[in-house]
Amino acid sequence: MELDLEMSYKQYLLSGCLQLLNLMGYSDSSIECSNKATRAPDTNTTIRVLDTVALALTTRKPGEVFAVALDTRGGLTLVLGKNDDVTADDDRAARDFFKLISDSEATQTCDVLSFLFSRCAANIAERIMKLNQAVNEFSCCLNDFLRTHYFFLPSLEDEFPLSLDYRKSKYGGEQISSVQMLRDLLEGIPDINEGFNLWDLSETPGLLAVYSELVLACQILRRSRILCQLCKSTDPWPRTQAEKLRRCLAMACHYQDGLSELIKHVKGLFPDGVKYRWAGDIEGTGETTVNLGGDYSDTVRQTLGDSLLDDALATLCFKFPWMARKWHKRCSVTTRLHAEIRVLLDLSNPVHGLDHSEQQPIGCSKWSCLCCALWILAYNEEYGTNWLTSGSHGKVYAAWALPGRGKVDEHVLTEMQVRLAHALQHFPTNQRLPDAERSESEDAEEKLSDGAAKVR
Ligand SMILES: [Zn+2]
């Protein structure tokens, strides 16, 4: 795609910054959070429903992200966006999914789950594997947590709220202690997961029943008092383990929990069936192929100037001995507009076409990256709008395309240059390990999560 000279140069500068920050393992922990506390109650419900729609369309292909928002002009319509080309398969999936959730006869969570087990199998399998890992890690530390950090209350219902039916069906009239129930849940979840065929979810015998059993066990453990208390601990060690487990439990339940809420609200929003369309083409963006050149010294020079160049290059070379090789491998970057920005720009044509006196939620299949989060904040500031996604993970991707909105783009470029300058002079403590210490699976994971060479 041909860009004008100014946009082309700005995109080149930005992609260089983002590439170096990404390779250094940079993420902004101050922005890494959900914005739940600042959402209006209506926004909170809507964004959870929209997040579920976006998640339902996602197959876990590398770099694939979907976003969705409501167009309230002339009757309610869902506007869908993707950070890559929309395929016939995507459109068919959207049509089938919306038909399923609009159909008053078929709208049961289990019917929709059957659809998701096919469309989102890889995503669901990944969540189950991550849950197993978190449960195992937590179980290994459990005795230490119990010895140093926790006292059980005498009542099982206090320790495990809303678990009466579960206890009746699992234990009958047998008297068990809270610690026993906790151990049973921690051992039981990997046992249930053994029942899944994670390579081919559809080959799992009694898939729906196994998944429902897993979700129930996850919900009981997630609500447990011990997990809530450890997540609030001032000691970072149990808190980190507990937060990881709680996050993985929530992710494992997300499809079922999200669907229940979606099904509950969809009839109110779309009594005559869900209307949707894909976001249209956006003109004047930084979508192109950027050639970053053979080495990263230009990017460092543009960021720090000549006086600090030699020191920064020497330190980079020492701390990240694989940097030159990775930079070379990724020197061609295909930039794409991220899904949430695509939807926002589609609905902002004209800019004040929507009523922005209230929050305008955009649902996403994953949290927004740092550039999207900063760009949306700056856009709101510039145009008096009120867009938001459900949160940001604070990471950066070289393939992030400038959306082509002058001052707002400039703000993100400046922010990234300042962050890179700071990172080059004060190397982050969360730097990645040298190549020799990184496994192939980590590299594969990294490729899946950032689609670095291609999309996101
Ligand atoms: Zn993004």
UniProtKB/TrEMBL annotation:
Residues 431-456 are annotated as: Disordered. It comes from Pisolithus tinctorius Marx 270. InterPro entries: OTT_1508_deam-like. Pfam families: OTT_1508_deam. This is Uncharacterized protein. Residues 434-449 have a biased composition (Basic and acidic residues).
